[in-house]
Design brief:
62 residues; mainly alpha; 0% strand; elongated
Length: 62
């Protein structure tokens, strides 16, 4: 359990969650949803959700 309190591990957890959020900004849940899933559960779960989610349909530009 001591590894969870290590500041380096916390920084890596947040950085990996941020990366999952950036990769998922055009997916169904968007940046914040993917970041939150990765941060609360784990970045590995965030990547699985990211790969399973559909792309968001963006409005076409004329």
């Amino acid at each position: 359990m001591i590894y969870i309190l290590n500041p380096f591990v916390v920084f890596l957890w947040i950085a990996a969650s941020w990366l999952v959020g950036l990769l998922g900004r055009y997916k169904r849940f968007g940046f914040f949803g993917n970041f939150l899933i990765a941060f609360l559960f784990s970045p590995i779960v965030g990547v699985i959700v990211l790969l399973a989610s559909d792309d968001r349909r963006l409005p076409r530009r004329p």
